[in-house]
Task: inverse folding
């Protein structure tokens, strides 16, 4: 892979290439931005550019031993630290520090990528700070984070931030068309993925078009205020047994009600905007309740009953 395959991040790439060309590569970077927009791809491309055996004008050869190992994520001197049990623990940082004191072998610059670095605990952050304060030569840290502000100021002050931005509407459309998707699916993805092709791939893996059709069908049934239909929908919904998919489906409810506000012709409930906004808030509250481990079946049943009865509030 080469730089041009990282779409929509020209400014970030320009800064990284300029650092290499001017020999001003710093010991620590923060790659910030929403998930799925190329931060990790750029990290590996940057590392290859620093270490490729035959690079020319910051373009990697893609064929040398170093490039091949980095592409396969098997190079022993390119270390990835990822959350375990949703945190990056102090033990993981201590393991990093043991490796840090060893001189790089078979590579010009030893590199450490810390994925989801906002999941560093306070304890592990303070431990890591020692490595940032006195870094060895020929070492580069890349912290990948959604937001710079999610990290301790003592860490961010010692790193150079490279900002990655959501992709534009036109670029998203171009990418999604190249995936040979139907126009309806493209429109849902553009509204849903917030400029992130990575998120779009995740939604496609869950067959988002199918679930949007199901949500539309459910809402149509609920509009008839049949309690038996409501019970059946709740049974179908709770049988999914996948927390991430459940969250995506709830987002599709929000998306549908939002469409009803923007395009009244889609409003099968014939609800006014005030009620539609209340329903959006209701679904958002349901998502929050579920994340706080409130009984899933009960939370969904209450939500669906409220949606069914919404027309009586007008």
Result:
């Amino acid at each position: 892979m080469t730089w041009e395959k990282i779409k929509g991040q020209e400014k970030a790439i320009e800064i990284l290439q300029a650092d290499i060309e001017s020999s001003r590569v710093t010991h620590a970077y923060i790659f910030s931005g929403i998930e799925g927009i190329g931060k990790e791809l750029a990290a590996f491309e940057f590392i290859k550019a620093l270490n490729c055996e035959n690079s020319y004008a910051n373009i990697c050869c893609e064929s040398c031993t170093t490039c091949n190992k980095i592409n396969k994520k098997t190079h022993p001197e390119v270390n990835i630290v990822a959350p375990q049990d949703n945190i990056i623990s102090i033990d993981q940082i201590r393991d990093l520090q043991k490796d840090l004191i060893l001189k790089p072998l078979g590579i010009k610059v030893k590199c450490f990528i810390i994925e989801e670095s906002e999941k560093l605990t306070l304890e592990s952050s303070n431990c890591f700070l020692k490595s940032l304060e006195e870094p060895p030569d020929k070492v580069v840290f890349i912290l990948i984070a959604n937001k710079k502000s999610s990290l301790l100021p003592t860490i961010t002050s010692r790193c150079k931030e490279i900002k990655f931005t959501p992709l534009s509407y036109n670029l998203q459309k171009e990418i999604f068309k190249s995936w040979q998707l139907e126009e309806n699916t493209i429109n849902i993805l553009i509204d849903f993925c917030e400029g992130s092709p990575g998120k779009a791939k995740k939604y496609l893996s869950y067959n988002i078009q199918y679930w949007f059709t199901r949500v539309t069908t459910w809402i149509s049934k609920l509009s008839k205020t049949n309690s038996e239909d409501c019970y059946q929908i709740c049974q179908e919904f709770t049988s999914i047994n996948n927390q991430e998919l459940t969250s995506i489906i709830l987002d599709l409810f929000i998306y549908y009600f939002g469409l009803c506000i923007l395009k009244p012709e889609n409003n099968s409930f014939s609800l006014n905007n005030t009620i539609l906004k209340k329903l959006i808030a209701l679904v958002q509250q349901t998502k929050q309740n579920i994340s706080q481990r409130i009984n899933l079946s009960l939370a969904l049943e209450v939500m669906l009953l409220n949606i069914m009865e919404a027309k009586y509030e007008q």
About this structure: The mean pLDDT is 92.
